[in-house]
UniProtKB/TrEMBL annotation:
Species whose genome carries this gene: Micromonospora inositola
Name listed for the protein in its UniProt record: Transcriptional regulator, HxlR family
Gene3D superfamilies: Winged helix-like DNA-binding domain superfamily/Winged helix DNA-binding domain
HTH hxlR-type domain residues: 10-108
SUPFAM superfamilies: Winged helix' DNA-binding domain
Length: 117
């Protein structure tokens, strides 16, 4: 079977769903400059709840995009980092971030025109 993201039963759609999820996208971007602890990620990704951050990290780990390393310290320290696979998606995610910031004013103007109708 050839991957077909338009087919709801295709695994490639689940990959797109993971990468395209807003929290996953933001967590990947937050990890772009190196390992982070859970609290650092929670602070960096404004608005994410503990539940969503935990679910997002677990999903990214399950998909092989993030590693979770537990250090045997008191208290235990847990670090999250992008895997090679996770780093391979950075150009795409960073491109989306760059597009959004570059075109923000245009999008906001379009929204204002639409809402004024």
């Amino acid at each position: 079977m050839n991957p077909d993201i338009f087919n709801r039963n295709c695994g490639s759609r689940k990959v797109i769903d993971r990468i395209g999820d807003r929290w996953s996208l933001l967590v990947v971007l937050a990890l772009a400059d190196g390992d982070k602890r859970y609290g650092e990620l929670a602070e960096r990704v404004d608005g994410i709840s503990q539940k969503m951050l935990t679910q997002t990290l677990r999903g990214l780990e399950r998909d092989g995009l993030v590693t979770r390393t537990v250090h045997a310290t008191v208290p235990p320290r847990v670090d999250y980092a992008l895997t090679d696979l996770g780093r391979s998606v950075l150009d795409l995610v960073a491109g989306l971030e760059a597009w959004a910031t570059t075109h923000l004013a245009e999008v906001e103007a379009a929204r204002a025109r639409y809402d004024a109708r």
